[in-house]
Amino acid sequence: MIRGMGLYTADSVTPAEEIAGSESARDADPEAMLREFKSECAARPGAFVWVGLFEPTRTELDMVAAVFDLPVLQVEDAANSAQRPKFEIDEDGHGLALLKLLDYTESTSDVHTGQLAVFVGPWFAVTVRIGEFGDLRGIRQRLAASPKLRSHGSVSVLYAVLDLVVDGYLAVTDEVGTDVEELESEVFAVDRAAGTTNSIYRLKRENVEIRRAIGPLVIWAHDVVGERLEWVPDDMRPYFRDVGDHLLRVSDTVEATDNLLMAMLMASTSLQDLQQNQDMRKISAWVAIAAVPTAIAAIYGMNFDNMPELHERWGYPAVLGVMAVICVLLFRAFKRSGWL
Predict the structure, then answer these.
(1) Which band of pLDDT confidence, cut at 50, 70 and 90, is reported for residue 25?
(2) Strands (E), 9-162
(3) Which of 146, 144, 157 has its CA nearest to residue 117?
(4) In what order do the strands lie in the sheet with 124-130?
(5) Hey, CA dihedral for 214, 215, 216, 221, is it positive or negative?
(6) What's the CATH fold of domain 2-270?
């Protein structure tokens, strides 16, 4: 569905309702409204229209694609929630930027993924959002309050979206970093929780989700930081460079987190193996101690008539004493060796 629609110039912002006459007019025939915007942009140099779509149907997407003459393959990518992030922007600054949205759930420490596609043209910007998070109303308010930003045309929408998405990456990586610190304390705690290793693996999987979202964008970040993108307006280069810096920071953080989690996983596994070895040594030591009285009792339990001590009055306490002495000596030996 169409969540937002408006005409933007350096001097003003005109919502769809003001051109259509009412909100119901826009909803009744959105295609006619878009073509009206197209005519307005042709008559007003520097103007551009921004249309925001939220989980559009195939019919809605095809209608918008027809009005704005969007490439078929790029439209297919925007509708595919499994598509990997990418930039397909030409030297004029027109094309598609496909980004992944990230959201962190505090209660479960899970990272959820959405998708946001941004089509940029000479007189339009079209955003296609898939997923419940990533509301763009804040960006609309930002553009409405910044004539300087609107003066750069539709590329201003791309910048504002990138800034919002990358700030979301930073927030999610900060939350994951906090979880890593808590897990690190649990790994080396005296009384380790039984599910620590499983928690490390789950957090590592969440970190992989972040890596999938930002990995394909790292090359673009290096290009924008190095100011190798000719389509970026001179006045906006510092803004795009700031977004690139943040994206590279997220990439470095994700890489460091992945290495730390791997080290923690190996340490947790090693500590678990060590604990199991210690338990096995204790069990083996007690079995060895218990084997002595068992063996002696088994021998004297055979009840042969000619056993030397079988009919002696001191035989029973003597055998018990021998058992006790041997068990004590074995206990002391195992204690000194660290097995008990």
Answers:
(1) very low
(2) 13-15, 48-54, 86-89, 95-105, 110-120, 124-130
(3) 157
(4) 13-15, 2-8, 48-54, 124-130, 110-120, 95-105, 86-89
(5) positive
(6) Beta Polymerase; domain 2 (3.30.460)
Buried b / exposed e along 168-179 (16+ C-beta atoms within 10 A): bbeebbebbeeb
| Whole-number Å distance between alpha carbons of 47 and 153 | 7
> Which homologous superfamily is 274-337 in?
Magnesium transport protein CorA, transmembrane region (1.20.58.340)
Check for a shared fold between 2-270 and 274-337. Answer: no
Query: Which helix H or strand E contains 4, and what residues bound it?
Result: strand 2-8
Go through the chain and tell me how many residues it has: 340
Cα gap 11→327, rounded to integer Å: 95
Query: Among 225, 36, 49, 72, which Cα is nearest to 127's?
Result: 49
pTM for the full predicted model: 0.77
Residue with tokens 């899970």: 110
Q: Is the pLDDT of residue 161 over 90?
A: yes
pLDDT digits (tens, 9 = 90+) for 181-198: 888 888 777 666 667 788
What is the SS3 assignment for 318?
Answer: helix
Helix (H, G, I), strand (E, B) or coil at 306: coil
User: How many CB atoms lie under 10 A from the CB of residue 84?
Assistant: 13
Q: What is the pLDDT of residues 67-101, one digit of tens each?
A: 999 999 999 999 998 899 999 999 888 999 999 99
Residue with tokens 């027809």: 66
What is the model's pLDDT at position 26?
Answer: 47
Helix axes 237-300, 315-337, angle to 10 degrees: 160
Helix (H, G, I), strand (E, B) or coil at 277: helix
Structure tokens belonging to residue 232:
């970026």
